[in-house]
TrEMBL record:
This is FMN dependent NADH:quinone oxidoreductase. FMN binds at residues 9, 15-17, 139-142. Residues 1-200 form the Flavodoxin-like fold domain. Its EC number is 1.6.5.-, 1.7.1.17. Quinone reductase that provides resistance to thiol-specific stress caused by electrophilic quinones. Also exhibits azoreductase activity. Catalyzes the reductive cleavage of the azo bond in aromatic azo compounds to the corresponding amines. Belongs to the azoreductase type 1 family. Pfam families: Flavodoxin_2. Its cofactor is FMN. It comes from the Bacteria.
Amino acid sequence: MNILHIDSSPMFETSNSRKLSAMVVALLQERYPGCNILHKDLARDPPPHLTQDVYLAYRRPEAELTPQQRRERAVTDAHIEQFLASDIVVIGAPLYNLSLPTQLKAWIDRISQPGRTFRYAERGIVGLVSNVRVIVASSRGGLYSLSEEGRARDFQERYLLAALKTLGIAHIDIVRVEGVNMSADRRAEAYAKAQAAADDIVSSILASRPQWQRAALV
Ligand SMILES: Cc1cc2nc3c(=O)[nH]c(=O)nc-3n(C[C@H](O)[C@H](O)[C@H](O)COP(=O)(O)O)c2cc1C
C-alpha cells in the first residue's frame, strides 16, 4: 500500500498540522506494516505558483509547447503521478486566515489537470480519480466546527472537501485539532479527540478492504 504524506505548514517544530499528520501516518504504519510512505513537504519544497505556462502546458498540443511549458508540464506530471500512485493521501493542512497556506493551494493547482484528474463533460466537470482515499489532518487556532456560523467561515476544510471531490475522490476523512491557540487544556482535549478519531478512521479503512487483503495486512 502506498501512502503519500503531505505537510504544508511553514512552521516546523511548533506546527500542529505536522504533529497531527504524523500521528495519522504512524497509525497507518502500525496497521499496515509493509506500506510505502512518501513524505512530501510543501513548505520546504513548494510547487511553484500557477502561471500562464503552467496552465497552457496542459492545454496545448505537446508539439506546440515552449521549452518553459515543457518544464512546467514535467513538474506537474511528477506531482500528478505521485498523487495517482497513492492508495491513501494524508494532507497536513493548517488554517491560515480562514483558508489554506498558499503552498497547499499551489499543489492542488498542480494536481487538478484536465484529462488527468478531471474532464469536462456536458453536465460539467467529472472527476477521474477513483482509487485514492484522503485523510485531511486539519489544525486551527479557533473553533469552527461547532456552529453553523463557524462552519460558514471555514474555507479550509470546506474548500479541500470540494476541491478533492471535484477530482472524483469519494472517501475523504477529516481529523482535526481545533482551538489549539485558545488554552493548553483546549489543545490537550483537541489532541485526545483527534487521536480517537484517527484510530476509528484507520480501523474503518482496514475493515473496508477485502478479506484476503486484510489477512495479508494485519
Ligand atoms: C498566518 C496565520 C494565520 C492564521 N489564521 C487563523 C485563522 O484565520 N483562524 C484560526 O482559527 N486560526 C488561525 N491561525 C492559527 C492557526 O490555525 C494555528 O496556529 C494552527 O496550529 C496552524 O497550523 P500549523 O501549526 O500546522 O501551522 C493562523 C495562524 C497563522 C500563523
